[in-house]
Amino acid sequence: MAELMKVGRGILPAFLRGGKTAEKAGEGGFEPFFDWRVLIPLAALAVDLLVHAVVPTNPGYRVKVLPYFSGFLYVLIAGFGIYAVVSVFRRKSREKLAYKSWFFAAAFLLLGLYDLITIKLDLIPSLYFPAPERIVQVFITDWFFMLRCLVYSLRLLLGGFFLGAFAGVLTGTLIGWSQRWNYWIMPCIRIVGPIPSTAWIPIALVVFTRATDAALFLIALGVWFPTTVLTSSGILNVRKSYFEVSSTLGAGTLRNVLSIALPAAAPNIFAGLFNGTSSSFLTLMAAEMIGCKFGIGWYINWQRETLAYSQVYAALIVIAITFSLLINVQFRIRNRVLSWQKGTIRW
After folding, report:
1. Arithmetic mean of pLDDT, 19-40
2. Which domains does the chain have, with CATH numbers?
3. Looking at the predicted structure, is the pLDDT value of residue 26 above 80?
């Protein structure tokens, strides 16, 4: 029992210190550690909840008041509270949450400010700037239909993205490797490439019989140009001595391209793919708003025409989360593929 109390007296100060002493206790051992910064997001959420509960709703706000915003805040408080408890025992979680704590707090305070100027003070038109509770309601009542639209859009997006990425890497490799191909293709790229893919929508809708085929073509076109340019640039910047040594050892053209040119140009290729992802999202939204009869872009345009701006904001949030996840997946793939260049390239 005495030994147990001694261990407890040693752990409690380390738990409450908030300094760096516990971090130096040895990575092989276990010692709980508390960083006060993990409570900053919770404090911001508590302020939002207090203001939402204390400040009365503006009498000029004619829309029915809903309980969804306070419920959303409670869910966030529960989630960050659990994360804060877990961070005491997990160093990586603690460092990540502590580093992002001020950003989360600022984001939550801005959310509370938006709630204050909409439903509490009624400073902006509620028709075009719905209160947060209205946006949260959309996720509760209309989530399945938005999910179907998102799946439809992702099918178009990924199909066009992979088609454009393959064509871009192939074209960029031909241009960067062969002077003959460069002579014929590069002038075409300089003329056609800078034209935004959305500018081709009227022509694509005439050429292709289905709007989905036109959308696939436009998305692929938006990915193809940046991928082509950066792939060719990466191959052209590879040192010629590498190819000379490889050829001396008996490697042929295909082996030089696959084993030297493309791996060396991989950072440029991924940069082109990142730019292509952004372009593909823009093209997808424009194509769905004009020609397609389903999808998340079509959903936004439909709700805008009916003045249902809470659905519009909810769909924009879905797009932002989806785009962020896709970029994060690409970053993870890039880190895995380019692990041999770790420390030499910073993104």
Report:
1. 63
2. 32-140 (no CATH), 143-341 (1.10.3720.10)
3. no
Residues in a beta bridge with 345 = 342
Q: What is the DSSP string of 251-270?
A: --HHHHIIIIIHHHHHHHHH
Q: What is the rounded CA–CA span in Å between residue 170 and residue 193?
A: 15
Per-residue pLDDT tens for 260-306?
888 888 888 998 898 888 888 888 888 887 767 788 888 998 898 88
| Cα–Cα distance, 316 to 298 (Å, whole number) | 12
DSSP letter at 55 equals S
Instruction: In whole angstroms, give the CA distance from residue 322 to residue 140.
Output: 18
Are residues 170 and 179 in contact, defined by beta-carbon separation less than 8 angstroms? no
| Amino acid present at 161 | F
Burial of 329 (0-12, 13-18, 19+ CB in 10 A): exposed
First-to-last alpha carbon distance for the chain, in angstroms, is 53
The closest of 51, 115, 39 to 77, measured between CA atoms, is 39
Which neighbouring-strand residues pair with 342? 345
pLDDT at 53 over 70: yes
